[in-house]
UniProtKB/TrEMBL annotation:
Name under which the protein is recorded: DUF5615 family PIN-like protein
Residues of the DUF5615 domain: 4-99
InterPro entries: DUF5615
Pfam families, sorted: DUF5615
Length: 119
């Protein structure tokens, strides 16, 4: 399993807790953790960090993230992927999808894309 997730600072820590409870070998970091961008970091810098460290960003930022991704790609850069939480999605469904994605996806399957979860 080589998919790694960076959770946006606006997501509840319970996402990480539940992911790791169900899948202890999964790598799940949150904005603000040691070694990752601090809380308050602007999205373009977070995308660069995800690219440089090969983490898929998990966020609820539906409004501006498509613009930031387009700008990032226009600079000739790449991102391992962005997974945006759907409105009204239950945390259980999101956790199940994140575990499934990590288990069966190729490392570059979500590259340079925004996908919405649950799938």
């Amino acid at each position: 399993m080589s998919i790694r997730y960076l959770l946006d600072e606006n997501l509840s820590p319970s996402y990480r807790e539940q992911l790791l409870r169900r899948q202890p070998d999964l790598i799940v970091w949150m904005i603000g953790d040691p070694g990752v961008p601090p809380k308050g970091t602007l999205d373009p810098k977070i995308l660069r960090w995800c690219e440089e460290n090969t983490f898929i960003l998990v966020t609820n930022n539906r409004r501006s993230m498509p613009v930031h991704l387009a700008d990032h790609l226009a600079e000739g850069r790449h991102v391992p992927g962005i997974l945006v939480l759907r409105l009204k999605a239950e945390i259980r469904q999101i956790i199940e999808d994140l575990i499934l994605i990590a288990a069966v996806s190729d490392d570059d399957e979500y590259q340079d894309r925004i996908d919405y979860i649950p799938l």
